[in-house]
Records
---
Amino acid sequence: MGKPTKRSVDVVPVTSSSPAVLPKEQAELFRDVLSWFEKSGKPYAVAGAFALREHTGICRYTKDLDIFLSTENATEALACLQRHGFECEVCDPIWLAKAHRGEFFVDLITGMSNGVISVDSCWIERAIPANILDIDSRVLAIEELIVSKLFVTRRERFDGGDIAHLVYGSRGKVNWDRVMELTGEHWEVLLWNLMLFHYVYPAHADLVPKALWEDLMARFAKEVRSPDPKAKFRGSLIDNAIFAIDVEEWGLDDVLAESRSRRTQIQLPVRRSA
């Protein structure tokens, strides 16, 4: 399943998009944070718009710099960034902290907001070299980048288009065994995104191995033929606002709370007085 498939296009598609010109203060903040991570040796990888550009050539403006790292390393990084004069806050201890300087900031991300997927050392070890704003850095490998976007399914933000672009731009070189390993029991969300890819790029179904299509479709057919009457409601993992009524008024399972409760939390270091 993990063997790359051959595609008819031999290069990543060329785009007319070009890197956005960031405000000077914002670019300096991004460079300073990346330089600090590189010099300190803290394990990390960049995701978001910079990683998408590296894998697809698509450039778009980004208001923040997404840095992926483990929960333990995020807590340590916050302590160090505080000592370097950054204002730090933990926005959601399950997955997100921010380091501010003036009106600009970087995001420190340790997993998905629903707690289903978390970043570990393997994500960082598999990251690939990239030059970001003239800093030698690294971005998530395409497999981790795809998985990081699976549950970005909110009404106000949907990353299915990014996943379609990543698959199309991959030249068939995605390690799907790795994607399946990270996706685990949530394979239906992967299938959902791959169905969107197929709808958008019907002539390029072969960029996803036939064995993977057959495996996922067979699983789905089995689930439809013999649904588990004890299976839990999972709508809140997709969007807890859209499916709030199901949990709060109809009494269905709060799988989101269960998932988040199992995750280690980012800790904001106490600022010590001089």
---
Amino acid sequence: MTPSPDMDAVYGRIDAAGRLMMADARLAALHARAGGEEGGVLAVPQIASVARLAHRLGIVVSRPAIAADGDMDLDLWVRAQPEGDDVVLAITGWRLRDPHHPVAVPEVQREEDFARSQAELTWQIDRGLRFTALSAAAAAMIGKTEAELIGKQMTTLFRLQEDEEGTLAILSALAEQRRFDNQLAELRGKNEQPYMLSGAPVLDEAGHFVGFQGSAVAILDEPEPQPVAAPESDGGAFAERLEKALRAPLERIISDAEIIGEQPEGPLRRDYAGYARDIAAAGRHLRELVDDLVDLQAIERPGFHPAVEDIDLADVARRAAGLLAVRAATDKVRIEAPAESERAPAHGDFRRVLQIVMNLVTNAVRYSPEGAAVAIAVEADADAARLCVIDQGPGIAAGDQERIFEKFERLDTSEPGGTGLGLYIAQRLARAMGGDVKVDSIPGDGARFTLLLPVRTERSG
């Protein structure tokens, strides 16, 4: 499909190798002035990077760009739309400015810019809640660059908060493909300052929903007082220092390695691209270890008690399935979640219960063969509420079924990924909430992990 005509737009087409196969005269001239050859790789890196991102994510990407043109700069708005193996470009703006002499801004535009600035952070995400565009200010507030966050989950930047009804506004809007204005969130690393997220649907030229674009505004009123936590032990302080010291450099290592592996500046030797992928995988493993160590210090701290609230295990299951759908699809595994009509009322800390379920489903996906299904089932009776994660993996021998819940225990230490802490943490969290995590498995016939929590009585009305 080709974009609808726009009198102000300049069009071009890039193939899968990044070659400019078709271009209007204005784009062709800019390409030539940048040193490009006819039919060669697009020589304007700011435009080429948007095209590569759209091709990699398979979605429409629109964003501003500043391209050098001799001694001057061009303000552009680049829209890149995948079309088969090609990417169609529609570029507007083309405003020339001298980088050494700022252009006076008309009063109307200044007012619009001022209004826009009230939103400290602006962003765009796809249907999988991955960033496709992000303001530099948003990334800088957690010590990153825009490039480091593109393609990452929105939760890398924000901790999403539930409303009074226990729902996430952004997920409800995603399901209904509508605008939302009331998603509470915390910026990671700035927990004392809450934000309110708003987003509007983004549609492609055919009118299909492809994601959201939105903003985040700081809530200046003081948040409600929270219960005073027990004084941190030395271990808790160590975990906090560990996270602060390692998270930022690990994120940079992962991001840089992924970029190198994608070969944005042209082909690399095959072994070099392989090294980059290995570095990124090792970085993700270390990041996972840091996350687990922080959780480990929290749950082993004296006086640790998760919050107890009314939750619905079926709702938790559906949310976990949605958050892990992209990862499962990458591994060619499907996740079967409870139907919307199913409910399993329970007592527990919603955030910690979601963490447990995410761990169980992630493990199930990891050990499932291609084409298999991971089923999440829920039930509740007078004794307990249960959530079961059933996979079609290799299964676990009877002698190993207790050992997998021990600290730092892994059955196959040669296998990449995993820290040996996930199941230990999951079981400790469940027991701290009055429940448990158990496993039932026969080697060669998959495994069934069950999360049990205290049941709650449904209220009428």
---
Amino acid sequence: MARALRTGVPLLAALLLIPAFLTLLPRSAGAHDPQDEVLQQVGVDERLGQPIPTGLRFRDQTGKKVRLADYFTGGPAIVTLNYYACPTLCPLVFRNLAGSVRHLGNLKLGKDFRIVTVSINPDEIPALARDKSVATYAMLGGLSEPENRWPFLMGDQSAIENLAQSVGVRYSRQGKNDFAHPNVLVVVTPDGRVSRYLYGLEVRPRDLKLALVEAADGRIGGSRLSNSLLLYCFHYDPVGKKYVLFASRLMTVSMLGVLAVTVAMLIRLWRREKKSGAA
């Protein structure tokens, strides 16, 4: 009897601990890392085709009061939301974007499109905005009036939130001068509508060019025919978030090109034979 009692005590204790253990499970499942909350607050809700409020007022890095509409004068624009006290990621975005701009071929910053960077920090220091703009302009190769081609803007909380909400960009303030935000370029049409989102710290020049040509409906850079063929051969992959080659369409264009060359050669030979017969 005593032996049975001794054997049953641990088993009984274990059974009594099971309800207590079960009560802890919801707490463990419900526990979460604060970083998870930040990730949920930060992101992009794509709003393709939606207009942005171009009437919003900001200040550029020189302190001059401007409107977003000042930079929509016939061409598309790339809108970026960053902040100038960012220690690493934002300067990397500026550097990589400047590098991509230098490799856009016949698309020229200022002539065909503009870049508009807006700080998400309403307490931004103008001196820091000037420093970031000067450092970025140095990477573009000595453009004239770079502040009109790529302004670094500052604004109040209302204007910043209005712009961010219009393009679907969600960010979170993490401290006095620290923000969590997505790395995304918002390509906007000449009339101020969201056309495309390009993600990542570095965007390939090809993707940037295709997005700009698409936003401008083929009216910038080369001829509209060549731009139409370019957009016909490439399409935007919503899963991979980049432009990919449409192989079947490329083959179609190539076959049409071969057919056109063949027809031209036959016409030339026919005219030569006709002239020889007449002689």
---
Amino acid sequence: MGDVLAVIVPIFNEEEHLKSLVEAMAPQMEAITGKGAWKFIFVDNGSTDNSPAILEECVAEYPGSKCITLPKPNYGAALCTGIENSEADFAYIINVDFWDENFLRWGWINRHQYDLIIGSKRADPTLNHLAPYRQFLSWGLNTLLQLFFGFIGRDTHGQKILRISSISPHARRCVMQRGQFDTELVLRAIRAGLWIAEVPVPISEHRPARNLMLRKIYNNVRDIFRLRTVMNRVPWTHTVRYHRWAREDILACKLISWKQVDDRHP
């Protein structure tokens, strides 16, 4: 049997977007991974709208898919739970309103070359159509990551493709919850010497932000200082293995010759 891809989707009150996501994504999954080689893993973060009923319908429609329910909203816990319950070789982490077919196609073709592929909304400013204040917030967060953690990338949040066997042990060790879980996960992966790729993805506003900017700034700054305490106990065990790609590489879906980089991959 070939590789299986789990599409991990955290859900919190998404009744307006769930059906459109599933209907748009399912045909692309069939075309890219092949029939029967993928499934949805929905993690409901204590939704209070009609999302649970819609999720039940989605799971019934796509065999192998499942929905896991958490008692309260917690983005980090949702991601960790999805990874641990994926029962797949690879996972594609997305938000309901933010996924990219070209990123998925390129990542699936190159899945054996990397342990983690990050879809970066900041890697190419010509593709970032978020409101200026949201771009400023992302810039500020990334600047803190560079200053305090030696982060060499441009983004830790958003869609990702990951190898479950490589990433799951690090996900279990993560301490941070909510919005900084995936930041800690990326930092741990870098320090462990995992092979990582960062590729640009387009992003634009599809709905109003759920949190006020001042609250976002406060939460991010507070969590960064907590994360610093956590990461001070995580040693660098290998040199950095981090590749950046251009959007043209993604659109061309070119395979790389990994023998030129690491003979561990036949």
